[in-house]
Amino acid sequence: MADTKGTSWSSQMMEKFANCDSLEFLKRQCPYGVAGTVAIAVIIPLLLSVIFLGKKKGKQRGVPVQVGGEAGLAMRNGKFKELVEVPWDGASTVAALFEQACKKHENHRFLGTRKVIDTEVIQASDGRKFEKVHLGEYQWETFGQVFNRASNFASGLVKLGHDVNTRVAIFSETRAEWFIALQGCLRQNVTIVTIYASLGEDALIHSLNETKVSTLICDSKQFKKAASIVSKLETLKNIIYFEEDGASSDSGNRNGVSDLRVSSLYEVEKLGKDNPTDPRLPKKNDIAVIMYTSGSTGLPKGVMMTHGNIVATAAAVMTVVPGLGRDDVYLAYLPLAHVLELEAETVMLASGAAIGYGSTLTLTDTSNKIKKGTKGDVSVLQPTLMAAVPAIIDRVRDGVIKKVEEKGGYIKKLFNVAYKRRLTAVEGSWFGAWGLEKLLWDVIVFKKIQSVLGGRIRFMLCGGAPLSGESQRFINICMGAPVGQGYGLTETCAGAAFSEWDDITVGRVGPPLPCCYIKLVSWEEGGYRTSDKPMPRGEIVIGGQSVTVGYFQNDEKTKEVYKVDERGMGWFYTGDIGQYHADGCLEIIDRKKDIVKLQHGEYISLGKVEAALMSSNYVGNIMVHADPFHSYCVALVVPSHTELEKWAQESGIQYKSLSELCDKAEAIKEVQASLSKVGKDARLDKFEIPAKIKLLPDPWTPESGLVTAALKLKREQVKAKFKDELNKLYA
User: Fold this and answer.
1) For a disulfide at 34, which of 410, 559, 562, 641, Cβ 3.0-4.6 Å?
2) From CA 469, how far away is CA 615, in angstroms rounded?
3) Are 509 and 515 in contact (CB under 8 A)?
4) Sorted alphabetically, which InterPro entries does this protein's record hold (predicted)?
5) What is the 8-class DSSP label of residue 634?
6) What is the pTM of this model?
7) What is the Cα–Cα distance from 497 to 574, expressed in whole angstroms?
């Protein structure tokens, strides 16, 4: 989730940590001196461990199940014999779920947004201008108020000419109005088309024309992009824009789109309030959302999600996140056009939790857009729940470790003792993870670090890509919260596997969610078989309530990866390779598309190698490339600017720009040596360690089109952009 200036919000969080007087805080907590307190802090937990600590009996989290379709090893969730479809009877569609939840929690706060108090433009020394904002407290709307707004918007859409045969697209950053517009459309059974705000012009035109969208809903930033392509949009009739804070109307938005009807969200709501229309509620199998993915190849594909798909996944997640309810506050900042965020907010809706909206540029007190001396979103909201992608958590972890190293002395020693004690406890048992010792170390060491995320986080959901064990443990220890690592795809409505809150292992994605079955099917060519010992392995195939119906107007691709068995159940072939642990938990170990056979017959898994090499301090991002006509692999590396420049300064390397530094033979040699070391430590074979590398100075962001909104590598796009660089590496 890098911001538009290429700076991650996680690095800004670490700046907050660095400036939080943690050293003074720790000293105040040590009345017997740091060393004395450390001794006491170790002895007391050890005594408690002797009295209380014991390994929890192994729990069977996933169990075998007999299903139809292709032969393989299938598992279901160990707690549920039948697949979960709804959170409660009668809530079989998103529209029904919304209405019933709003009535149940009518007077409780639901959606929160911060109002702009002041704005100023700062000019940097290099001439660049940055907007800084002072944001106020969260202003809340209740469930009842949100329901009324969505109902009015639904009636307004009908007045604009919408019916079940028309489609509406939302092209905007995440915000409360996004959610309200979604629910309004679904109350009239109008299918929503979701599009990433970072999507390029060609992909945007393709998505809108392919789905024959008649109304586009967008924020003011995306309006400018949409206005520039209006002449290429074949069916568009209306544009509805979200008003920016402090503006009652925005007539300037209408320039350049005179052939279309342009309205603000407020105007459509008022139109509907003055012309109320009965809802046209959908059925379970009606298409709720066509979600365009920022896939790794070609133009994006539109995944068709039914109401039943979305509701089933939400219902399943509610069974594995402990204690969800009105006391919870969820921080919403990931793209709502991504299935992870859409499902997370649906879970909050069903649970009666409050949703506070933020952005990547305003999350912390030191975020790029936050005016100095004012508070970021996490400080004001103090969420109890949040979602993140692995790249974010990895950067947070690296940032904290770096700051601890910089502090040195007693602070470093105390942190290391505390971390090792907590690590031993977390890996020992559930009690060790969340018992009395946790409270002790939180007070002495980790309280200030936890304040980086508001100080109240009790559970984190991580999805979008595999999360490293080290980073998961970091969240467990420093943030004091369990991490639910999820596995799913847009094609399965995010619903596949989810690690349970009391599972103290790492590197796994848990058992199947109770809305689906997960089957491993042998892939003979790749050498992965369900008969493998000690763990069965194979391609991951998902079946059940969360499996979507296919790709919009793309029968060829749909038939390739979607299958319906003799019992009528739909299955999605993911292309991912997994293995089952003895307790029925799934681990992702490979991907079919990432496996390349080299010249001498060795197989190399690009994803596995990249994951190993990312542990180098010099690596900000990396793409390993293997050519079947060569016996070695190469790599494109986006270096960590801080680490590379620090090395250059210590080594006396002279350079005028980062680009010049990246081209220097000494820098290339240093980074390659680091890759070789971490590769050997990870037990990679010689042919898996890149023989040649190219350092690239510019970060890969969603805006550049080289990574997805979830920060996953878009391999084909990177290969195309740096085709010449790759050819030179093989020359």
Assistant:
1) 410
2) 12
3) no
4) AMP-binding_CS (IPR020845), AMP-dep_synth/lig_dom (IPR000873), ANL_N_sf (IPR042099)
5) E
6) 0.82
7) 13
User: Of 120 and 517, which is predicted with more confidence?
Assistant: 517
Residue 47 class from Cβ within 10 Å (0-12 exposed, 13-18 middle, 19+ buried)? exposed
B/e letters for 179-200, b = 16+ CB within 10 Å, e = fewer, are bbbbbbbbbbbbbbbbbbbbbb
Banded pLDDT at 24 (limits 50, 70, 90): very low
Inter-CA distances, 52 with 46, 57, 112, 361, Å: 10, 15, 42, 45
Closest by CA to 520, choosing from 462, 589, 568, 569, is 589
SS3 content of the chain, % helix, strand, coil (to 5): 40, 20, 40
653: phi then psi, degrees, rounded to nearest 5:
-80, 125
Whether 285 and 94 have beta carbons less than 8 Å apart is answered as no
Which of 93-102, 151-160, 318-327, 589-598 shows the lowest mean pLDDT across its residues? 589-598
Structure token digits, residue 46: 């050890």
Distances (CA, A) of 420 to 42, 66, 193, 435, 508: 10, 44, 48, 16, 22
Which residues pair with residue 119 across a beta bridge? 133
Q: Exposure of 148 by Cβ count < 10 A (0-12 exposed, 13-18 middle, 19+ buried)?
A: middle
Q: What average pLDDT does range 490-502 have in this prediction?
A: 93
Domains, the chain, in order of start with CATH, read: 9-57+355-487 (no CATH), 65-84+514-592 (2.30.38.10), 94-313 (3.40.50.980), 598-730 (3.30.300.30)
Phi, psi of 384, deg, nearest 5: -100, -20
Distance separating alpha carbons of residues 359 and 131, to the nearest angstrom: 14
pLDDT at position 661: 95
CB 460 within 8 A of CB 484: yes
- For 109-163, the DSSP string reads EEEEEEEEEEEEEEE-TTS-EEEEEEEEEEEEEEHHHHHHHHHHHHHHHHHTT--
Tokens of 216: 């586009």
Q: Write out the H or E segment, with its range, that includes residue 274.
A: helix 265-274
The Cα 201–Cα 211 span in angstroms is: 16
Residue 714 to residue 700: CA distance in whole angstroms? 10
**C-alpha distance from residue 209 to each of 186, 203, 235, 412, 709 (Å):** 21, 10, 7, 57, 22
Q: From residue 175, give the alpha-carbon distance in Å to each of 111, 115, 224, 560.
A: 9, 12, 18, 36
Q: What is the pLDDT of residue 421?
A: 87
Tokens of 487: 């596995």
At position 690, the amino acid (one-letter code) is P
Q: List, in sequence order, every residue forming a beta bridge with 509; answer none if it has no partner.
A: none
Task: State the residue for tokens 């595999």.
Answer: 466
Model pLDDT, residue 528: 92
Looking at every residue in the chain, the average pLDDT score rounds to: 87
Angle, helices 94-104 vs 176-187, to 10°: value is 120
pLDDT of 343 higher than 80: yes
Q: Give the integer Cα–Cα distance in Å for 25 and 97.
A: 46
The two three-digit tokens of residue 5, written as one number = 């200036």
Cα separation of 272 and 154, whole Å? Answer: 7
How does residue 17 score in pLDDT terms, banded at 50, 70 and 90? very low
pLDDT at 126 over 80: no
Lowest mean pLDDT among 524-533, 660-669, 703-712: 703-712
Collect all residues with Cβ–Cβ distance below 8 Å to 682 and sequence separation of at least 6: 612, 615
Contact 633, 726 (CB under 8 A): no
CA distance 86 to 313: 9
